């Protein structure tokens, strides 16, 4: 049987036991001190007063303001910075989670990244052919510290894309975890969480690149395998 000291070492730290300052500081990728990030956060927050209200507005702004596009993924370090992603206006799940963490930190809300391997049952036929799997390695989302608890916020799919997939948009209320639905509105499997990789104060860039090269080498071909964009149109076409 483990003693109390061993059990305390093995369990995750509570917010009271953590050094929360690391979740408020700008980093290489979560560049919350960037003027671009600051402007995006201010516009989204507007007149919101509490941290909860700010987090809800920031979440909605990133969910619907940064378009989800799994075809246009660039792998330079610069392309993983929040300010770069905001400038482009699009990104995949990790990119959108980075932006949300950055604007959260700018607003003074402790924010961090979390990663999991997920099985996505509602990809498009074109994306399945490209990736040769429905397992998405290192799917990224954000966690906010609100009311003394870490709360999950997943801004991946913008509302317009959800409508095409016939999936209810994932809302965030600042009190409950917002993780992707297991089923769509027609009862079909949507998202299944397979492996949790835990929280990170910054992007584990080298690990993500290594995993993508191992599992999705097609993304690193000299010639792009597919044209950029059109994912939302594919989603609508596949649902017909």
The main β sheet shows up as: 4 strands, antiparallel
- Number of DSSP helical runs: 9
Q: How much of the residues is beta strand, in percent? A: 15-25%
Report the principal-axis shape: globular
CATH architectural designation: Roll
Number of domains: 1
Strand order across the largest sheet: 5-4-3-6
CATH topology assignment: C8orf32 fold
Structural class: alpha+beta
Query: Percent of residues in helical segments?
Result: 25-40%
Poorly predicted runs of 5 or more residues: 4-8
In total, the number of strands is 6
Mean pLDDT rating: 86
Radius of gyration, whole Å: 18 Å
**What is the CA-CA span between the terminal residues?**
56 Å
Classified by CATH, the class is Alpha Beta
Order of helices and strands: HHHEHEHEHEEHEHH
In short:
Helices cover 37% and strands 17% of the residues. The protein has helices at residues 4-10, 35-45, 51-65, 82-88, 93-106, 125-131, 159-165, 205-215, 231-239, and strands at 67-68, 90-91, 111-120, 135-146, 149-153, 191-200.
Structure description:
The chain is of the alpha+beta class and 240 residues long. It contains 9 helices and 6 strands, in the order αααβαβαβαββαβαα. The longest helix is centred in the N-terminal third of the chain and has 15 residues. The protein is globular.
């Amino acid at each position: 049987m483990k003693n109390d000291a061993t059990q305390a070492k093995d369990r995750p730290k509570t917010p009271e036991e953590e050094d929360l300052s690391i979740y408020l500081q700008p980093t290489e990728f979560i560049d919350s001190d960037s003027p671009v990030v600051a402007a995006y956060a201010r516009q989204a927050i507007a007149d919101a007063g509490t941290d909860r209200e700010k987090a809800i507005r920031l979440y909605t702004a990133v969910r619907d303001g940064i378009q989800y596009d799994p075809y246009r993924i660039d792998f330079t370090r610069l392309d993983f910075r929040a300010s770069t992603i905001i400038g482009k206006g699009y990104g995949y799940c990790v990119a959108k989670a980075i932006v949300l963490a950055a604007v959260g930190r700018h607003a003074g809300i402790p924010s961090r990244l979390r990663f999991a391997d997920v099985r996505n049952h509602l990809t498009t036929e074109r994306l399945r052919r490209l990736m040769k799997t429905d397992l998405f390695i290192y799917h990224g989302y954000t966690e906010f510290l609100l009311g003394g608890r870490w709360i999950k916020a997943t801004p991946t799919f913008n509302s317009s894309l959800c409508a095409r997939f016939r999936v209810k948009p994932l809302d965030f209320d600042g009190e409950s975890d917002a993780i992707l639905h297991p089923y769509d509105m027609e009862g079909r499997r949507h998202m299944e969480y397979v492996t949790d990789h835990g929280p990170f104060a910054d992007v584990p860039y080298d690990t993500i690149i290594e995993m993508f090269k191992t599992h999705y080498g097609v993304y690193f071909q000299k010639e792009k395998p597919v044209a950029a964009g059109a994912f939302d149109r594919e989603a609508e076409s596949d649902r017909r």
